[in-house]
Amino acid sequence: MERNHKAAASVAAFAALSLALTGCGEGEAAASGLADCETDPVSCNAGERADGGDVTWALDGSWTGWNLTMASDNNAYLNEALAGMWPYVGQFDPEGQWSYNDGLYAAEPELVSEDPVRVRYTLADGASWGDGEPVTARDFRYHWYATSGDDDLCEACTPADTAFGGSVADIEAEGDAVTVTYVDGYANAEWKYTDVLSSPAHIAEEEGFDWAEDPADMADSQDWFSANPPTWSTGPYRITDAEAGDHVIYEPNPDWAGETEPTLDRLTFKVIDGLDSIVTELRQGTIDGASPFSVDVDTITQLEMSDEDVSYRIDGGPNWEHLDLNTENEFLSDPDLRTAVLTAVDVENIISRTAALVQSDAQAKRNHLFRFDSEYYTDRLAATSQGSGDVDLAVDLLEDADYGWDSDGALLTPEGEPVELDIRYTQSNDTRKIISELIQANLTELGIEVDINPIPDADLGPVLFGGEFDLVVFGWSGNPGFVSPANQYWRSDSSSNFGRLDDPELDRTLAELSGTLDLDEAAALADRAVEQVVEDAYVLPIVDTPVVIMVSDRLVNVRDNWASQQRAMYNIAEWGVSES
Questions:
Q1: H helices of 195-296, where?
Q2: Rounded CA gap, 390 and 380, in Å?
Q3: Tally of domains within the chain
Q4: Angstrom distances, CA of residue 331 to CA of 383, 414, 506
Q5: In angstroms, rounded to a whole number, what is the distance separating the alpha carbons of residues 34 and 20?
Q6: Statement: residue 16 has pLDDT above 70
Q7: What is the structure's pLDDT at 17?
Q8: For residues 124 and 106, what is the distance between their CA atoms, to the nearest angstrom?
Q9: In this structure, is residue 299 part of a structural domain?
Q10: Is residue 415 included in any domain, yes or no?
């Protein structure tokens, strides 16, 4: 497969992070498998694969539906669970370099016109849905409709992201290629990385949905794909058994058109609640590994006690923790209160009590889109008080906005109503529990009564999508791109804008961001969007979350990847049982 030179969009790749307990990220249990990841992140733990093998991999979170295009289904855990079969356009590797998916495409996407923007996708010979049906332009069109956000195409659909579907003008077949034409004025500096496929059109039709002509049927077909585990696959594996939020069992996909042939006979993804339980099962040999989205001191201690058959490594991951405010809440609709709330939150204290315990140099995240080592990074919180924990300043801000306090110290709105809020987090995530408790303590100092209300893991998507929170702590997981994430997080009509921020100026900036092919200009616009989000006191970034990968030494070609939502599963076709 060809590899690009590292694109400017991906130079946000950051250096390996030092750790509080183990200087290079390896403990006593570490074997040679992951030891080279510090210096060779792309090829560490490489090895010859035996023919066959049965592998079980733990997931540390859940999901409720099977359709990654829907806001209510889309989360990091479903991304991992479907890594063996989903039609990704390509992947970033652990050095931030991007490669196209050779199981679907014969070459990289090609920009054939800039005005209007037209991109050609040449399909690989044999690219299919794993059921004898080839991938065609009709499948591209289905994804367009599903992600359009347009009721005339998909009635009342709620896509996780409309950056692609909301900008397409036409899709046409050209022999073995498919060309996507975008609307006049649209441009995307990261056009190459845009996913253009999701679910197969022919299965929607077989189920009786006239999706191409009936917007209501199109929406119903999306719900059907959400409710039913995929029987189709464009990846190296296909699903043989699955239960939402519990497990996915794979076998090799005989119709996989990619260069790398899978060698495993069976691959199981199994949801296991709690880091303690994951480590226990790994030490007992009932699972072969995991790449959970959090890590704590107890986990490291347990891993250090493991025998020499287990390797582990801790690094910065693709996800970042943040506090979001619901602007439709009766109190938080007031930007003055939002600013005071975010001022009272002490981010440095949160980090010292959580991330810094496993990563000694953990830093407060100061930009929502760009990591510290990105050439585009600017500290967008430096000129504000947000995250400072300055309660006195927060009190001054409230007084200036005509808030007051009763005789018991409870904060009152200018109309005299007590301010009461809840804060929510995923129930099994102990780190987020601590973060929520610390935020509760910060806001109590302001006289705000805060009720902590955990979210069952499987319900995170529906809770966020439904806006069923006042304050919520959760993580976004992504890749080195920034154009699509900015639109997904904050555009007023985005289904993933969970706190319902509606800022016309921000929308204009995001429209400009989606109107340039120049990467540097796009980065400047994305950074301006971050600045406006800060001014709106909407999202408080906390930290790029330290993550852990733990692997049985019987596995080869398994390593972590900060630049992919799929983490270790980014190269799942290469996974195998060691031949030695």
A1: 201-206, 215-227, 275-284
A2: 18
A3: 1
A4: 25, 11, 22
A5: 18
A6: no
A7: 22
A8: 4
A9: no
A10: yes
